[in-house]
Every structure is written in C-alpha cells, then in structure tokens.
Amino acid sequence: MIIHVTTWHGQPVRVHFVAASGGTETTTAASTTGPNPIAPEVKELVWGAGSFLVFLILMRLYLFPKLKKGMNARYDRIREDHEYADATRIAARTDVSKYETELVAIRAEAATRIDAARQTLDAERNAKVAEVNSRIAQQRAVADAQASAARLAVRDQIAAAVATVAQRTTQIAVGKNPEASVVASAVAKAMEAGAR
Questions:
Q1: Which of 2, 3, 67, 153 could form a disulfide with 18 if both were Cys (CB 3.0 to 4.6 A apart)?
Q2: Nearest to 186 by CA among 41, 194, 106, 127
C-alpha cells in the first residue's frame, strides 16, 4: 500500500491510499481542516483599513474641496449665463417694442404723406381737367361760331338757290314770272319751318 499526501500552503488536505494488489485507489479527507479560502487574514484587513483611511483623508482634504470648488464655479457660470440670457431677452423685447412703435410712427407718416400727395395730385388733376375743359369749351365755342357763320353763309346761298328754283318752277307752271319778294318770303318761311 502506497500513501500520497497532498498539501495546500503547508497544510495536508487529502490523503491518497493506493493498494498494491489491484490498482484500486481510495481517497479520504484528512482529519485536519485547512484554512478557509474566503475568510481574510488580519494583515489584509489592516492594509484595507489603512488604504481606506488614506483615501478618506485624501478625499476630505484635497479632492472634495477641489470638486466642490469646481461645482460652485460651474453653478456660478450657469447662473451668470441665465442672467445674461434674461438680460438679452429683456433687451430684445425692448428693441422689438421700440421697433414696433417706430414702425407705427413711420406708417402713420407714410399714410399722411400719401394722403397729401393724393390730395395734391387730385388738385393738379382737377386743375388740368378744368383747364382742358375750358380749352375744349373755347374751341367748341369757336367751332360753334364758325359753324353758325358757315350755316348763315350757306343758308343765304341756299335761300337764293331755292328762290331761283321756285321762281323758275312757278314761271314754268303758271307761265308768268312771280314777284321776287313773294318768292323770297315763302322760301324764308319754309326754311324756318324746316329748321325747327
């Protein structure tokens, strides 16, 4: 029989018995139990606690104040940006309201100028129309006078021609020559009746 002992950190864990006769192997646990692999040792606890205390002191004295200072600076910068944005917004609203009041004033002035220009143009147009109408009236009066004069001139010629034709027709029809005053008076009455 051969005995093999397996150790872990100097502590026996398993014992192997091998029988020489047939090669069957049996394993039994040793009577002594080894250390717990999960349980920390004292020196590990001391090193962990020391590291934690050093980290705590480092955080409290150096890192946390620096972090808080950075957070405060960031907060102040954000607050200033908000205040600047509010001031800009108020200035923009003021500018817009000023622009709108100026726009209303300019529109009112433009409307006043347009009305004044329209009145001026209407007055000029009325003056030109009156001038043209007076010229047309003058030309019409001149044309009417010329037409009346031409009518009178033609009327006398027509009356003379009608009187000649009537006298000749009467002479042919009756056989004697009618009086010129009677023919002229009949022709004048006929022309007056035709003119109406």
A1: 2
A2: 194
Four-point Cα dihedral 153, 156, 158, 163, nearest 10: -170
> Of 47-56, 57-66, 168-177, which gets the smallest average pLDDT?
168-177
Q: How many helices (H) and strands (E) does the chain have?
A: 3, 3
Contact 1, 14 (CB under 8 A): no
Q: Give me Rg for the CA atoms of the chain.
A: 70
The DSSP secondary-structure symbol of 61 reads I
For residues 9 and 35, the answer to whether their CB atoms sit within 8 Å is: yes
Amino acid at 139: Q
Q: With bands split at pLDDT 50, 70 and 90, how would you rate the model's confidence at 156? A: confident
Q: Please report, as a single letter, which amino acid is at residue 189.
A: K
Is the pLDDT at 5 greater than 60? The verdict is no
